[in-house]
Amino acid sequence: MTKPNAALRSSLSCCFSENDDEGITTIGGGASSWRIFTYKELHAATNGFSGDNKLGEGGFGSVYWGKTSDGLQIAVKKLKAMNSKAEMEFAVEVEVLGRVRHKNLLGLRGYCAGTDQRLIVYDFMPNLSLLSHLHGQFAGEMQIDWKRRMKIAIGSAEGLLYLHHTVTPHIIHRDIKTSNVLLDKDFEPLVADFGFAKLILEGVSHLTTRVKGTLGYLATEYVMWGKVSESCDVYSFGILLLEIVTGRKPIEKLPGGVKRTITEWAEPLISNGRFKHLADPKLRGNFDESQLKQAISVTVLCVQSEPEKRPNMKEVVSLLNGHEQKVKVMPMRIKSIKYEEELLAFDQPSDADDHDGGGGHDENNGYGVFSALEGQKMQDPYKHRRDGRIDKNVY
Ligand SMILES: Nc1ncnc2c1ncn2[C@@H]1O[C@H](COP(=O)(O)OP(=O)(O)OP(=O)(O)O)[C@@H](O)[C@H]1O
Ligand SMILES: [Mg+2]
Fold first, then answer.
1. CA nearest to 148, candidates 102, 185, 193
2. How far apart are CA 370 and CA 373, in angstroms?
3. Domain chopping of the chain, boundaries
4. Where does the pLDDT of residue 313 fall: very low under 50, low under 70, confident under 90, or very high at 90 and above?
5. Are 36 and 20 in contact (CB under 8 A)?
6. Ligand nearest to C-alpha 212
7. Stretch 301-305: mean pLDDT, rounded?
8. Active-site hit among 20, 116, 123, 175
9. pTM for the complete prediction?
10. Could you give the C-alpha distances from 171 to 96, 203, 238, 304, in angstroms and in order?
11. CA 244 to CA 248: how far, in whole Å?
12. Looking at domain 6-124+373-390, which CATH architecture does it have?
């Protein structure tokens, strides 16, 4: 049986016991089951990790489609390099996945941790990612009509609500974006990728940490000072929602190379009340106008620069479900984050259309992912750690 090494085992304390080769955990939301796979098994299931089976590539490594000997379709995420950063991401992902169970969160099907490889196994999601439908390989097919888009928005919000308010300790995802929202056969969304997640212990309001995540989705206080709280996810969700409604990318490159954020684009339309002009043209006018307004209002609330003014995910879900008819204090303006030039320089355009629909990026181009943005570029009133070590109170 494959066993993770001692350091990994200690960082995965809640997921392992000495003779685990199958896990049934009952933390937070209920039981979730997974098992340990052998490398041989996963090698066979993915046809030797063949290029034909490759679904996409992310910061952690490549993702392959596979089928187990008992016929289960799986997605196998294979760590591209064994280093401490990647091992930590693997450890956090497995730790967090072992804790969560919710219809809108992609759970753990299993993992493989040998001496020189790390792999995570998930259920295969036949409709791939939201990114592939908005900007990638399915963008031309318009499978996500308005109704599906609202279902995706509400489901993703419910997944986040569970992470922020139900599971203990609470979990901040830190990488909410369209490639991390996967779609099952009925287009039910499942939020995935917990490699950057932080567990928030009781009584802790925020943490300071190195900035990770994807530019375009990052809240001001996080990108500037590394201050992390649930409201950072709320901000990212606001951007995701705007993307779902408008079909635009979080950052687009204008002719001449200038980069513009989705909020900068939306700002004048919102402040002039031209909501209909915000809707994705691919919808060809087929959308519910009041739902559109409500969704835009929720975005406006979520992307406010002051984190304390943002709603929490309970309020977001309630607003999106139309339980609160009107947003009480509806700011009519978005104050867009103006990312500094040097930050934008880190960001590579999300050329999902040219790749796999998965927002493919490799280690060299970074695709807007700050895996370790150096602190000296930022003012740092919260004294966040720059030594790469994990903050107190978090994993
Ligand atoms: N369970 C799954 N079912 C189907 N496709 C999946 C699954 N998991 C991942 N994918 C596909 O593989 C792609 C790559 O995923 P991965 O999470 O590695 O990268 P990413 O989301 O683009 O970036 P990041 O590393 O920042 O999360 C996804 O965009 C998605 O299309
Ligand atoms: Mg991902």
1. 185
2. 5
3. 6-124+373-390, 142-361
4. very high
5. yes
6. 1
7. 94
8. 175
9. 0.81
10. 8, 13, 18, 21
11. 8
12. 2-Layer Sandwich (3.30)
Contacts of 220 (CB under 8 A, 6+ apart): 305, 337
CA of 193 to the centre of ligand 2 (A): 5
Higher pLDDT, 78 or 196: 78
| 184 labelled catalytic | no
Which residue's alpha carbon is nearest to atom 17 within ligand 1? 58
Q: Is 55 in the pocket of ligand 1 (CB under 6 A)?
A: yes
pLDDT at res. 390: 24
**Fold for domain 142-361?**
Transferase(Phosphotransferase); domain 1 (1.10.510)
pLDDT of 114-173, one tens digit each?
878 899 999 999 999 999 999 999 998 989 999 999 999 999 999 999 999 999 889 999
- CB proximity list for 385: less than 8 A, separation 6 or greater: 208, 209, 210, 391
Place of tokens 């040097």: 342
Q: How far is the CA of 129 from the centre of ligand 1 (A)?
A: 7
b (16+ CB within 10 A) / e for 361-386: beeeebbbbbeebebeebeeeeebee
Q: Which two tokens stand for residue 344?
A: 């934008």
